[in-house]
Amino acid sequence: MLSPTPLSLLCALLLCLPLAVIITITSPTTTTTTTVSDGSQPNPVPDSVPAAKTHQRFSFKPPSLLLEDDKSLLRVASRVNSKTPPGSPKKIAFLFLTVTPLPLAPLWELYFNQTPKNLFNIYVHADPTYPYESPFSGVFAHRVIPSKPALRFTPTLISAARRLLAHALLHDRSNYMFALLSASCIPIHSFNFTYKTLTRSKKSFIEILNNEIGSYDRWAARGPDAMLPEVKLEDFRIGSQFWCLTRKHARLVVGDQLIWAKFNQPCVVWDTCYPEENYFPTLVHMRDQRGIVPATLTHVDWNGSFDGHPRKYTASEVGRQLIVQLRKNKPRYGDDGTNDSDCSVTQRRDPFLFARKFSPDSIQPLLSIASDVIFND
Description:
Blueprint: H1 6-15, H2 20-24, E1 33-34, E2 43-44, H3 69-77, E3 91-98, H4 105-113, E4 120-126, H5 156-171, E5 175-182, E6 186-187, H6 191-199, E7 204-205, H7 215-219, E8 244-246, H8 247-255, H9 258-263, H10 279-287, E9 292-293, E10 298-299, H11 320-328, H12 343-346, E11 354-355, H13 363-368, H14 370-374
Parallel strand pairs: 3-4, 3-5, 7-9, 10-11
Antiparallel strand pairs: 1-2, 5-8, 6-11
Helix pairs in contact: 3-5, 5-8
Membrane topology: Single-pass type II membrane protein
Region (Disordered): 30-54
Main location: membrane
């Protein structure tokens, strides 16, 4: 897991003294020391994924997370400095949300190993109930945050993303943009291309769609009046759960309590319950419409979708032509009222930076075209 720095822990004690005991007791006593990518003093960074029924066991048990732990973590994270340090390079925080191992990790290894380590951070939220065969290794070693089960059709997927944002905010003040990714995501450009695209933007990239088919059913999935009065139907939005948020919006998400309380309810109609695709676009729409580009930079193909899942690319489909086609496609920009008259939005042609879903067996074909195609802009 990623432990907060001594400075962030001090801030936590000062800002949230009554809950300090709750925060500190979640840190295990056994840690593994690593060198921080920006050259600062190393932090103790323990891993948190349990290794029950594995061939290679972890050296300690994961900590037990108390009920109030997330509440205190999010509260402290929402109060971190809103700006990155002057004179320091901006960093991209890559947030991997997974309920399985990372089968495409070798491709990400190549992606990250071709760039200076002071330009990015990696954070992994891994379902602790999964029987992992081995610990996360390479660039993912010791990057697992304290994690809880994340289940489809429940708000636990939202909680996992908020947890990732909170740890990233507390861990490194230089984190400027926060990109949420899944285990089936791949990069479709070089790190340098992605870095320039994200760090030059002053706005978040988050898909926010209005008047979509099925909006009412999703809004009423917890009951016809469950979202009222805080979230009216006209304020409800749909969008991709994979976004790139600025530091400002990362703090907005972890600091939210009002809108989160409405989404943090069990659905009574499960087949229209996709909280992670509704909470983030609804919150940002209600709080800061002008601060976003209403589109996701993670490509997905919903043609031929099954059981709520998009198309999955297999090994036989992976090749130069596929990557070129994914790059040619352009994001769908949401019509969100205020953005309708914003020429800087309606005339944008932002590139997709990532794509999903790719099957585990596609890793070898992906590696074979990594240097000549994927990382060749």
